[in-house]
Amino acid sequence: MKDALPLTGGWTLRLPDSPLGGGRVPAQVPGCVHTDLLAAGLIPDPFLDDNEVGLSWIGRTDWRYDTELAPRTTGHERTDLVFDGLDTVAEIRVGSTVVGTTRNMHRGYRFDVTGLLAADAPTPLSVLFTSAYAEADAVREKLGDRPNSYPEPFHLLRKMACNFGWDWGPTLVTAGIWRQARVEHWSTARLARVTPQVTVEDGTGRVRLDLDLERTPGGEGRRLTVLARVGAARADGARAEGTADGARTEITTTEARAETTADGAAASLTVEVPDPELWWPRGYGQQPLYDCEIILLDGDRELDRWTRRVGFRTVALDTGADEHGSAFTLVVNGEPVFARGVNWIPDDALVTRVTAERYRTRLRQAADAGVDLVRVWGGGIYESEDFYDACDELGLLVWQDFLFACAAYPEEQPLRGEIEAEARENVTRLAPHPSLVLWNGNNENLWAFRDWGWEGELAGDSWGEGYYLGLLPRVVAETDPTRPYWAGSPWSGSWDHHPNDPDHGTAHSWDVWNRLDHTEYRTQIPRFLAEFGFQAPPAYATLRRALSDAPLAPDSPGMLHHQKAGDGNGKLARGLAHHFNEAVDFDAWHYLTQVNQARAIATGIEHWRSHWPRCAGTVVWQLNDCWPVTSWAAIDGDGHLKPLYHELRRLYADRLLTVQPRDGGLVAAVVNQSAEPWTGHAVLRRIAVDGTVLAQERLPFGCAARAVATLPVPGSATPAEGSAKELLVVEADGARAFWFPARDKDFAYPAPRWDLSVATTGAGAEVTVTARTLVRDLLLQADRLAPGARTDTGLVTLLPGESATIAVHGWAADGSPEAAVEKALFCVNSAQKTTG
């Protein structure tokens, strides 16, 4: 059996002579230069104020990591030095020998160092990193430049693009040993690569295992045996003998055995599992996982072992033509799925700080919000196993971009070979995960070629089309044909249609954020909306922690630095002006921008969900942030939940009730994504501002599972168009929808009045608000009570006499809690200035 020795301790980072004055500091592996310098107290936190600007020199500096390798005492034939990730351009030295160089953050590397390790003393190991900018300059000199949406050269080397800044992220160009490093000793042969292809046919699960072997000279000519086993894991994904409730159950293990030829470098075998339990997305069924194990044997001697978990499910992409264009519908186990999705960016600008626990927390938050699909965006990274393991267990479908975003990428060497190796490695690495259901070629590059002026600027130079329509689909077809591939997002399926044609394939919708009111979402019914979003600032506690502005204002220095979008504040202002009068102060502006973000996303999702199955998915930009910033995220960079997050819980619930303008009138859309029919009666009330019921209708409805039903709103229940003094309320089985016929700035909101009570609990407090008037979009910002406090409730609209109880966690409600809560409560009625 091979021996693996982690290289996690004893590292130092050599400092440049200027500006840090030379010397060394302890280094963490995995880690990066920024985190090591922070730990040593040599740089300020780049997330605070505008510290980022003063640290730009780090990305333009060469760095060196040093440690020592233990004496070689093993009897194995071969010794390898293994790095799962080096960021990015590096030279590796063992003693005085250069054993290899790297130029790709998204790959692993293995170097044969047999004979280089001393037997009686430690051997020096050094990893020397060249500035990413220097590498980009060299590639530009060789291949010429290419168009790019941002003024940084991320497209000229294989490194996380958003390291170089984005319209939501800081420019922090990292270097370092960012994934695990180790020394491996082995003999005869090892499993160099294992690719499982998991299928289900006629009720039988099949795991085909394609293996690549590497042999030592002593292993050549030996006939070896490969043993494969597949057995049930726990229903909750844990590797143990038992079910999700802990009860033991009989484990059925099936196995297959194959022998390699004497000189074979590859092998393939298939394990069949009769009647496997199927893996389903959350909301459609359970997520059973099976342990899959490969053992490489030389006679009875074990040489190597590979263990992963797999899940049995089928996935297909329906792109069939119909009367509306051509579909884009994910089909899992034969079941068409409306994807309730979010876009994922790296959860920290310094990605090595994202732990397994943090991945699970963030993805658990996504699942709790009703999300069933997470798109890993192409300007980040192929995430760690911890990310995909959590998605497997939570039933979150994963759409994985290949790592190309918003730029033209040269197709010549040295990039082309790196990209193919990167693609093959990561398709293989992620193949075991049942949650992974789609490979996507790029983010916005096909669209950019058509609409962003690239074609003329390129003048015939390569720009990536050969990757997206040639290389990448070939790699997926050859390496893991069990999953569909799509060339890009947006992409209509061919050049016969505009790349961002909403009637074909995937679409992105950014006109609303950039220039239009969010009601314009209702003008289109895309087949699948893979990106759309609206900005809002982070939580108040996040702003106060990250910024020293006094006072805070939309245009105070720190606020502006932590707004990375072009004309971001101008777009926020224009978005507010469509609906609201001027905010009464900064706190009200902060609240109203968060309300407008939630309203915008609700307008889109409610409209598009009501048009299922024509529209088969919405993927909100974005779930998370990588630092404290004004952005499109639902969860801010400190982990605080914005009102948008709570709104997603309503919008992505299995059962959604919404009022939609349609065909010159209104309809109540009953959206049922659950597995059971939804039947009952909808109660429609036309209500005056003072709470008087002006008309009431009770309409029966029946909605099949995974379907939508629409109920025309009778004229008696329809508020007069533009009325400032009445509204429509629709209710069914606890679900509720509102329709206000006038915009907020034109609506006759009364001055808000409510009764307030606060009761302490073991976890914090319960705040009960009883409305004495109509109260629109009441919000308790718990982080104003205590920076770490949180609530389970977002925006709530109350009619006169109605109450809402809001649980607050992490707050000691002592002293005068009602007075403190009053200062943290906001509503539309009082947040905007009155006119006239």
UniProtKB/TrEMBL annotation:
Q: Organism classification, top ranks?
A: Bacteria, Bacillati, Actinomycetota, Actinomycetes, Kitasatosporales
A Pfam entry, by short name: Glyco_hydro_2
Question: For this protein, what reaction is catalysed?
Answer: Hydrolysis of terminal, non-reducing beta-D-mannose residues in beta-D-mannosides
What Enzyme Commission number(s) appear in the record?
Answer: 3.2.1.25
Oxidoreductase as UniProt keyword = no
Class of this enzyme: hydrolase
- Which ranges carry the Beta-mannosidase-like galactose-binding domain? 24-179
Q: What is this protein called?
A: beta-mannosidase
Q: Which UniProt keywords apply?
A: Glycosidase, Hydrolase
Q: Which InterPro entries match?
A: Beta-gal/glucu_dom_sf, Beta-mannosidase-like_N2, Beta-mannosidase_GH2, Galactose-bd-like_sf, GH, Ig-like_fold, Ig-like_GH2
A single GO molecular-function term is: hydrolase activity
Instruction: Name the source's superkingdom.
Output: Bacteria
Family statement: Belongs to the glycosyl hydrolase 2 family.
The signal sequence is none
According to the entry, every stretch annotated as the Glycoside hydrolase family 2 immunoglobulin-like beta-sandwich domain falls at: 203-313
